[in-house]
Amino acid sequence: MARRLAVSVGFTGSPEQNKEIIKRIQIAEEVGVEAVFTAETWGRDQFSLLTQVALATKKIHFGTGIAPVFGRSPAVLAMTAATLDELSGGRMIIGLGTSGARVIEHWHGEPFEKPLQRLKEYCEIINLIIAGEKVFYEGECFKLQRGFKLLFEPVRKHIPIYIASISPVSMKQVGEVADGWMPIYWPKSKFAEGMERVRSGARKAGRPDSAVECVASLTVVINPDMEKAKVQAAGPISWYVTNMGDFYHRMLARNGFADEVAAMRKAAEVNRPMPFSTTPEIMAAMGERMLDETAVYGDLETVAAGVEERRRLGLDMPVISMPAGSPQDVERILGTLVS
User: Fold this and answer.
1) What is each CA distance from 68 to 77, 173, 193, in whole angstroms?
2) pLDDT tens per residue, range 227-286
3) Range(s) of the domain holding residue 241
4) Farthest CA pair distance, the chain
5) Are residues 33 and 144 in the same domain?
6) CATH of the domain at 119
7) Are residues 180 and 53 in the same domain?
8) Are 149 and 181 in contact (CB under 8 A)?
């Protein structure tokens, strides 16, 4: 049986680029990859690519990684997900998150208010719609009182909802309302601790500990030149700690890396990295312990062992970026990681 693995293909490309993405997703499906996730910001939407995936594949699950709970109503998200689930024979996953104030207020034009409450209500409303219920809902953000019901029968009464979350309060909420926890840059030694926080939310809501699985995004760099691999692996976490708001560096500080992130942010004041890159000063401030906890890098054998280690530490389904290289490289890499 294949080991559980998902791939992320990031943002939707041009029509020609999407043809190449679809070919790679088909290879992933052939070797046994379980799921593929897309993303979006303020470029092309992700549901158009997911429609292509649904039509071009037969087994692989697919989902949003993630869709923000602003910009689309919960009903629109539920209708879209139910349609894609029908089109694919029941393979849709709904990945949700709050995004942030800059994007929501200055791209979608909506106030970034009560994001966690809104996320909770989205999940509850989507579940009502997919279950085929008449929607009567009295929340803080949404008040739906006319009893509308989806005008077709969904192929499943429930579509899994995964939530991107790294803060303590939001992680407990994941346990209350979702089916999957999707952290990013989460230290490998803290997966069990993180899942216990999620499960505490599940127990509060009267759900079993097994209600939520851990589906974490991993930074993976396959490069036999270990020194180059380290620099490549350090790029994303360096950028997120020093330039992407407060959520990520605060999460890492809570998880035992307060000194490292403080030193990295101080180093970046003088030597600011390029997007998704690092500098020697930031790498020195980070140290190998933090890099090894938040990234997997090295030759393919080393990376496969690192991914497997994270499975043993509590990660149910690792999510990695779609490998680069030729179709043969993609088949070899993904085949190794699921075997």
Assistant:
1) 10, 16, 26
2) 999 999 999 999 999 999 899 999 999 999 999 999 999 999 999 999 999 999 999 999
3) 224-295
4) 62
5) yes
6) 3.20.20.30
7) yes
8) no
